[in-house]
Amino acid sequence: MRLPGAALAAGLQLPAVLAGSSGGGDSQKPLGLADSWGPGLSGKRPNIVFVLTDDQDLHMQSLDYLPLIKKHLINEGTLYKRHYCTTAICCPARVSLLTGRLAHNTNVTDVNPPYGGYPKFVHQGLNNAYLPVWLQEAGYNTYYTGKLFNAHTTENYHSPYPAGWNSSDFLLDPYTYNYLNASYQRNRDPPVSYQGQHTVDVLSQKALGFLEDAVAHPDRPFFLGIAPVAPHSNVEAFSLDGTPDDLDDIEQFVRFTPPIPAARHAHLFEDVIVPRTPNFNPSSVTGASWVRTLPRQSAENVAFNDHFYRQRLRALQSVDELVAAVVEKLEAHGLLGETYIFYTTDNGYHIGQHRLQPGKECGFEEDINIPLIVRGPGVPAGEVSEVVTTHVDLAPTLLGLAGAPARADFDGEAIPLSRGALDEAVVSRHEHVTVEFWGLAIGEGKVFGDQSRFWLNNTYKAVRVISKEYSFYYAVWCNGEHELYDVKADPYQLTNLLHPSSTPPTTLLGLPLSKVTARLDTLLFVLKSCKAQTCVRPWHALHPAGNVQNLHDALSGRFDVFYEQQQKRVSFSRCEYGQLLDAEGPQFETDGVVYRQGVRWSEWV
């Protein structure tokens, strides 16, 4: 069989992010420049430093082991506790972050061609329509070092060069994930191998050098992207020639091992183990599809995975030092007070939860709920925010800070950063996250016994809904299976209420389970093919009169017939490795709902 690409491996008129607004206005209206951006800025546009780690978890407590990030970012900024990626794998997540568009709109859905990777990014016309290009148009100098996209290689780095960067130094495949043999490619120079040097230490020097370059141009604000590979697993690629004929043949081409820390950190955390949460290697099967086939891990398997976890924490220590060095250099140049620092990751990670081997690509909280920390002028210090944010909100946020016009095709909205904006968002911001995935899932740890490293059927569409009153995850898989978790009552997602073996509660939120499920399915039907503001305001697409703003409103009994009898349902006709619309059932953007509340579909269009 042909190996799918995934196997190889966001008064004064203030910007919406600072004013008391959640950014839900006209998406084509310029956000405007403030006369005063915040403490110490005196009318200058802010600088932006954006740190993007690779595969960093939130739910396995990685932030607890990063004292310098805690000191410089968490204590001095806001931690967004409900930040989500929308596709839990590297390249699609990064493209969504940098374009402000969901993967079903970029059609970059994998890490390698034909469905993803840097070549697909270029093919989709995105190389001239993403964040650095827009920031340059807004008058910013832009710099970047580290991992940009998967399948950005020593062979195609100039075909074409990534657009939008004043200066860059990219990690390149097939050495991106090789901690002690990385290849970087600076500006228009050929790639350089750094064999024997730790990749994050190399990256740190490059990042600090770019910061010096940026400071040398005080007349222009700057954006500096820093993308260390840690704590991604170490990956060695043995050949660029040919493609494995079968999944069993993959080990001849690529090998996954735990991350490799810098030698100075190799002795740390000797007694630390993966948090033993209720969903860690549970005695009973959980989830849906292939997840329910996983055997319980042996003691030997668990011990190896604990080692894998410690290696991740050790690898992150270099990132901790990097962040501190950047903060100290900004402070030394007198720029810290006029610079926003964003810290996030592309996707989350699991080790042992639901019996899963180390990896990502699932819709569980461990994989999609990820760190986001922001420090900067006007951002409350020591704050932990519960507002729902996603990767597609990051590009609108950063352009807002730059004073650039918002784009009509953004699928997200600016993240509230100021005290006033955060307070208003508690009342007015949306409560949903679109989650989607195509292709296979990969276990990155050690293979024990006759277990598989690959699971082919991992295509699904899902929605995460969070409020003070309720918390749900609802998913439809390409094989027709459904998942529903009442995450408020079941925070570790142990009981799939829609699996035939489950004994679901009689009621949910005081209503029959079927009523809640019908609303969630219709919401997902809109979100799985939504575009632009419909992705932010999906309930308005269903109720154009504006009388439904959230799931609570939609649960009114007067809408029972509307949701339970009149709507199309989310479905697939088959499983595919990438986005092929004819396999994904009816689409809201083309087929629409059968009947919008109060307006017949024929009258609406």
UniProtKB/TrEMBL annotation:
Its signal peptide is: 1-19
Q: Which residues carry this modification: 3-oxoalanine (Cys)?
A: 90
**Which controlled-vocabulary keywords does the entry list?**
Glycoprotein, Hydrolase, Signal
Using the record's annotation, list all stretches that form the Sulfatase N-terminal domain: 46-404
Gene Ontology biological process terms, A to Z: phenol-containing compound metabolic process
Post-translational note? The conversion to 3-oxoalanine (also known as C-formylglycine, FGly), of a serine or cysteine residue in prokaryotes and of a cysteine residue in eukaryotes, is critical for catalytic activity.
Q: Which GO terms describe its molecular function?
A: arylsulfatase activity; glycosaminoglycan binding; N-acetylglucosamine-6-sulfatase activity
Name the InterPro entries on file. Answer: Alkaline_phosphatase_core_sf, Arylsulfatase, Sulfatase_CS, Sulfatase_N
Q: Does this UniProt record's set of keywords contain RNA-binding? A: no
* PANTHER family noted in UniProt: N-ACETYLGLUCOSAMINE-6-SULFATASE FAMILY MEMBER (PTHR43108), SD21168P (PTHR43108:SF8)
Q: What is this protein called?
A: Arylsulfatase
Organism (species): Staphylotrichum tortipilum
